[in-house]
Structure to design on (395 residues):
């Protein structure tokens, strides 16, 4: 894999291994799986075309990501990849698996046009299917358990009709990356409009009642410097050379101000009433404050892990709350004053399955395969269940 990225180290010192595979390796794996499963091997070529309509293709794909070093948990590394990817015989992304090896996404592609997705499914959800015109534009989105949509394309507008025969029309101007929706005819008959400048930045929006809001972007940065509401009232925004907001003045003339240090971190904020909040930092490499001081002089302090997780918070009265986290960054415990603690447990997919207090009172949570919360079991054993339709809406 010469020239390919096979490892990444993040700012916290964690090492990740990127498992790359060739088309030949994936083909051999497919054959071995078929043999071990006692099935006939499917057609899986050992090579892919060197060039496609999307450009050059060397056949190399990312198949998995492993955590190989964690400074905080060096002896407690995951025994499975954080994420895994499956590929079709034509090199298209077919499936995504999470750290519990649960398939969370699946994709189906057009037999004729490589890379054209014709179906997509979330875990245990109905499959959404797509149809295309000869130019490769989606003309139908078919949702078996919900609203389906059709799309009709003209030179300067797109008509969207749902399965209840409600219609919206999007009127466009511009070409390629500068094409913008300038008028929208809604299903209820109302119309909203937008205007853009020569480089595609929003200048005005007019609502269904004909009221127009104006936006003034900076010529160079594109940052909004002024917003004028339909009644003529204006708000102004000012930035430093790092594009950070330094002050904002509302229609009432009240102003907020912000100051930053040489590293670009917020160190002081002045509210419209003049109250000042200051932010302190004890680590030149962190954007997270170790303390804040308000206008009354009250001070709050925080400590953070190398992974930007809050470890402790001390309020202005000296009351300390501590937080524990697992290797995946999920909060596992909250420890308050007077020995009061609360503990959280998670399953292999990272879903909260139990909360227990210091007295041992435990509330448990259950989920379906799609990740919907199906039951809450109170400490006394009482059970509160919820059922869902195919799209995950509570019924």
């Amino acid at each position: 894999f010469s020239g390919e990225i096979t490892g990444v180290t993040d700012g916290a010192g964690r090492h990740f291994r990127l498992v790359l595979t060739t088309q030949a390796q994936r083909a051999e794996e497919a054959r071995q799986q078929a043999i071990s499963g006692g099935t006939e091997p499917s057609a899986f070529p050992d090579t892919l075309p060197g060039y496609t309509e999307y450009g050059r293709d060397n056949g190399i794909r990312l198949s998995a990501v492993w955590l190989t070093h964690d400074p905080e948990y060096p002896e407690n590394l995951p025994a499975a990849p954080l994420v895994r990817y499956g590929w079709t015989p034509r090199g298209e992304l077919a499936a995504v698996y999470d750290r519990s090896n649960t398939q969370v996404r699946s994709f189906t592609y057009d037999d004729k046009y490589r890379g054209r997705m014709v179906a997509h499914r979330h875990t245990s959800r109905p499959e959404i299917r797509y149809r295309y015109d000869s130019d490769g534009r989606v003309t139908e989105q078919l949702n078996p358990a919900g609203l389906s949509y059709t799309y009709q394309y003209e030179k300067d507008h797109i008509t969207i009709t749902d399965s209840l025969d409600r219609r919206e029309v999007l009127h466009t101007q511009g070409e390629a990356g500068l094409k913008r929706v300038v008028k929208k005819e809604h299903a209820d008959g109302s119309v909203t409009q937008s205007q853009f400048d020569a480089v595609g930045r929003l200048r005005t929006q007019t609502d269904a009642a004909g009221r127009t809001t104006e936006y003034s972007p900076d010529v160079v940065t594109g940052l909004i410097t002024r917003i004028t509401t339909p009644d003529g009232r204006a708000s102004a925004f000012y930035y430093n050379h790092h594009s950070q907001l330094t002050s904002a003045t509302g229609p009432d003339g009240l102003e907020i101000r912000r100051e930053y240090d040489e590293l670009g971190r917020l160190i002081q904020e002045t509210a419209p009433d003049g109250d000042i909040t200051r932010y302190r930092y004890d680590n030149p490499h962190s954007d997270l404050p170790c303390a804040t001081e308000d206008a009354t002089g009250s001070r709050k302090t925080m400590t953070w892990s190398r992974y930007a997780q809050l470890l402790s918070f001390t309020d202005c009265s000296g009351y300390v709350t501590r937080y524990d986290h697992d290797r995946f960054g999920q909060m596992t415990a909250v420890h308050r004053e007077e020995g009061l603690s609360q503990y959280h447990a998670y399953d292999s997919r990272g879903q909260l399955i139990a909360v227990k207090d210091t007295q041992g009172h435990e509330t448990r949570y259950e989920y379906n395969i799609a990740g919907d919360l199906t039951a809450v079991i109170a400490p006394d054993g009482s059970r509160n269940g919820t059922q869902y339709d195919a799209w995950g809406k509570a019924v």
